[in-house]
């Protein structure tokens, strides 16, 4: 196993890594819509979703991967009323064939974030 770490994504706010590799798999911890340069959450669901996906792209880049390598995504959302907004931004960043995905409404996210996204990617060998 190897740890994935970059200054271009928010630092872990607990006892976990930004991501880990295991064989051909890259597993990223959930990414909030935090701007890594300020450490603050972006304002609103659209900005948080966009930033969360940008953080994911930045982490994948450290493993020489892109969103095209993502095979599974999990989206945690604090209010399913925002599902369409999140889904539209998500769809604009991924391409066919889309990764498998789960989306669940949760009672609360760290820092009172509106969305958190985690992914599993695979290295093509």
TrEMBL record:
Record-level Gene Ontology MF annotations: deaminase activity
Listed Pfam families: Ribonuc_L-PSP
One GO CC term on file: cytosol
UniProt xrefs under InterPro entries: RidA (IPR006056), RidA_CS (IPR019897), RutC-like_sf (IPR035959), YjgF/YER057c/UK114 (IPR006175)
Taxonomy, superkingdom: Bacteria
Family: Belongs to the RutC family.
Protein name per the record: RidA family protein
Species in which this protein is naturally found: Enterococcus florum
Lineage: Bacteria, Bacillati, Bacillota, Bacilli, Lactobacillales
